[in-house]
User: Fold this.
Amino acid sequence: MKFMMIVANWKMNKSVHEAGQFIIDFKAAFEAKPNREMVICPNFLCIPMFKQEFSNSEINIGAQNCHSEAAGAFTGETSASMLKSAGCGYCIVGHSERRTLFNEKNDDVSKKIRAIQNEGLIPIACVGETEGERARGDTLGVIAEQVNAILEAHVPDKKLIIAYEPVWAIGTGKVATIADIHQVHRFIREKLIKRLGTVVGNSIVILYGGSVNPQNAKEIEGIVDVSGFLVGGASLKVSTLLDIY
Ligand code: PGA
Assistant:
């Protein structure tokens, strides 16, 4: 059976109270399945509660962002070592909302990946083209640059996850075609194999994200290089998240 990792990206949603209710409902409904892994990335404030409620369980906890420095005068920021001490095992990095709304560049993404891996956390590094880049035929060029920046920072014996999320498919209800997802995932896989060798390159989890929901998940799961999903909107409800899982 194919391995699949489901990563819930809550973005800036849910108060601590709402997250607490989600946890109650989730625990009542969740049944672990073989070859499936679940990572939930709530906002920073909810991470300690997730740690407390899900220690010794199959649910892994991730953050949505971090700073590249370990500590210091960076008002409002949170470091990878802090995330580790709070119980995170994963950290999303380079999400398109960080790239477009917070001006994060490939270079920033590289620095964060180094910091995340240095702390022994697993980066979930996002790549994806905008609608304009796709229209200009630049999709693979953009993906290549983003993946190169990730691989420049990546320490080969540490774990890495890549998420392909076409920017125009995020939160829009538009999903890339099966052929497009297949093409980009294959392209990323071939780059990984070229840089890291066949065994390691084939072992890296590549997620698809962008309007994944219970209706389209099964078909996307059938694509050979898709080894999981990064789910935004549909991860906010226990029922839709578990239908995808
Ligand atoms: P979406 O978000 O599932 O709501 O499109 C995905 C993401 O941004 O990670």
Summary: Residues 223 and 233 are 22 Å apart (CA to CA). The first helix runs from residue 16 to 29. The first strand starts at residue 4 and ends at 9.
